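Hi R.,

Here's the chain you asked about this morning:
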Amino acid sequence: MNQFVTPSLVPTMGSLIHLPDVITFDYAAVSYLEHSGNGKFLPRIIEHFHGRPLASIFPFDIYQMPEVLYSIVSKATRNRPALTPARSVLIHGYERGWCNRILLRRFDTARTTHSLR
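And here is the predicted structure, written out as tokens:
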């Protein structure tokens, strides 16, 4: 949480909006969707992090989530439906001062080499 902003009241365009005392992943995801975010893969991620404070989510948690939700798919596939949407919500939260910035690296995908015969 930004130390210079009172968590429950934030000035916005001349008026005040009320924020919950603890910003959860759910709240940040809804805000992300309201601001034109893509929600195609978010429902399963929201269910996984349901009720969890945004500031308590660390890279390890994000890397474990696709293994739970998409255990039988390749690492490349885990990037698209799990890592990318979760990262987008966390960046959205960071831009609003709701959590710290988190650096998330994509899962390594093995490159296939084709030999010419």
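One quick note: The chain has four helices and two strands.

Cheers,
M.
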